[in-house]
Design a protein that fits this description.
Layout lengths: L1 H16 L22 E6 L11 H6 L4 E9 L4 E4 L29 H14 L6 E7 L11 H12 L6 H5 L10 H6 L13 E7 L1 H4 L8 H14 L9 E5 L21 E5 H5 L5 H5 L3 E5 L15 H13 L4 E4 L5 H4 L3 E2 L2
Parallel strand pairs: 1-2, 1-9, 2-4, 4-5, 5-6, 6-7, 7-8, 8-9
Antiparallel strand pairs: 1-10, 2-3
């Protein structure tokens, strides 16, 4: 019943906002489902794993949200990927051990990343028409590749627990008629994103550097650079199919933010960008992202002037803000609007 309400709301919005046809979509496309993934905008929930937000992660997914966010710590002692806001050695989250849809709403919580991804996989299997879902990972302290917790190990974990539900970099690279684009940048700029309908029941995972990592003066290799190097090297070795997530450029900046990377060879492996909504609204030309079909997450949407509640705005306030940022070329609008499923399930025109 909930998904039927979401579908009805989406159809009404499509008509109300006259969704445009994006590059790669059918000339007769009339619904968001027929449009390329990068041609629409959705609303996501910040720190969806927080037990104060939802008793169970599945309840966050039930809102119809376009994005969930998980904070991840690399525990190099136990070799576990912990999910918690501030405890690097323990789990504090709403993920449970579930092998069926019914089990998503029962049992003990505070599990590791693999269990959170299991919950996502089980939920998507039970809702095959839902999505596409974006899973944002904030690697709070970054990778620890020198201690067996690097990009390859995270790829293996995602592969084992999301399985075929994961939309991989290799999937974006694959040309419809056969062959492959050389880089993610080439594929995105060619408009190679699949339609939303073809991505139903699937999840795209991306990662940003974490707050602890970015504030650590002794950490000279951040998540974004490390994973982009990993992608570049996998592609060179003919093993790009092993990759399971997309690195994101973190932080709003004018022009092409990838120019901040001194290694030019990793720049074409970034097609996902993540930064503060208010900063993007303060004079940055975000049409640049839309024209190149890059994914753009605008965070802390509530802080764009005039500010609204971070957790409990009215539905009209949240809807207006989502529409505003979608028009400003966001593909994901992120906030803590946990109690507004009618907003979380919006699918809006981008730009």
């Amino acid at each position: 019943m909930k998904l039927r309400r979401i579908a009805t709301a989406t159809a009404a919005l499509a008509a109300a906002f006259a969704l445009p046809i994006g590059l790669g979509g059918s000339a007769d496309a009339a619904t968001p489902a027929e449009l390329p993934f990068a041609s629409t905008a959705g609303v996501g929930i910040h720190n969806t794993y927080d037990p104060a937000a939802f008793g169970f992660l599945a309840q966050g997914l039930d809102t119809g949200t376009a994005m969930i966010e998980l904070d991840v710590w690399t525990d190099t002692v136990t070799k576990e990927w912990k999910v918690s806001h501030s405890n690097p050695l323990g789990n504090s989250n709403n993920c449970v051990t579930a092998s069926s849809a019914a089990q998503l709403y029962t049992g003990g919580a505070n599990k590791n990343l693999e269990t959170c991804l299991d919950d996502v996989r089980v939920w998507l299997a039970a809702h095959p028409s839902a999505g596409p879902l974006t899973v944002k990972l904030e690697l709070k302290g970054g990778f620890a590749g020198n201690r067996g917790m690097g990009p390859a190990e995270l790829d293996a974990l995602i592969a084992a627990h999301l399985g075929s539900a994961a939309f991989r970099p290799a999937d974006l690279l694959a040309k419809p008629g056969g062959g492959s684009y050389a880089t993610l940048d080439d594929a995105a700029r060619a408009g190679n994103w699949p339609s939303r309908a073809s991505l139903a029941g699937r999840a795209l995972v991306y990662a940003i550097p974490g707050t602890v990592e970015e504030g650590n003066p002794f950490d000279t290799l951040h998540t974004d650079v490390e994973y982009a190097r990993h992608l570049r090297d996998l592609a060179a070795a003919g093993r790009i199919g092993d990759a399971r997530l997309f690195p994101a450029v973190h932080g709003a900046a004018a022009g092409d933010p990838r120019n901040g990377y001194s290694e030019t060879g990793i720049r074409p492996w970034f097609v996902v960008f993540d930064g503060d909504a208010a900063a993007y609204q303060n004079g940055i030309d975000t049409s640049w992202y839309d024209a190149r079909h890059y994914l753009l997450t605008m965070t802390d949407a509530q802080n764009v002037a005039p500010a609204i509640s971070a957790t409990d705005p009215t539905a009209d306030q949240a809807r207006a803000r989502a529409v505003q940022l979608a028009a400003a070329h966001a593909t994901l609008v992120s906030a803590d609007w946990r109690h507004l499923p009618e907003i979380q399930s919006l699918v809006l025109p981008r730009g």
